[in-house]
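[Meeting: bench + compute handoff]

Bench side (C.D.) handed over the final construct sequence. Compute side (W.E.) agreed to return the predicted structure before the next meeting so the bench team could plan truncations. Sequence as handed over:
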Amino acid sequence: MIIYLLLFFFFFLLFSFFFLFPVSFFLSLFFFLLSFLSSFFFLSFFFLPFSLFLFSSFLFSLFLFSFPFSFFFLFLFSFILFSSFLFSFTFSLFSLFFFLVSFFLSLFFFLSSFFLSFFFLFHFFFLSSSFLFLFLSSFFLSFFFLSFSFFSFMIFSFFFRFLLISLSV
């Protein structure tokens, strides 16, 4: 009976090491790259509302110097301000969504790795080095998750500030 139990735990250990660890590793790598690319995407699109805002201020200065075309420039100014507001609002919502998804995924991976490794370390004290390696690798990957979710939250705060600035103007 003890031999069967040891064989079961040994095969469960092999399954966890050869299946759960690569799956969690590649999932964490995928979400890491996804959060990185989304942050880069939001940083690249951050300049678009800013340039629209500068262009609208240029149009407003033209409006001050040309009274015959005042209604046309006023319409263009309001349209560009509204479009910059819509851009900043949608990208702030996207960044908030990516922040929440990456945060909850990292929390899930961290808690699962913690409880799984605690269970394995509790039952397999003689195999603690491999499980400690598994736990530390998943812990550092979840730490990367949390750092990139914090980075996306910073991008969200930038967009939210720009949104407030465009609303105040």
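W.E. noted at the follow-up: The chain is about 95% helix and 0% strand. C.D. will use this when planning the next construct.
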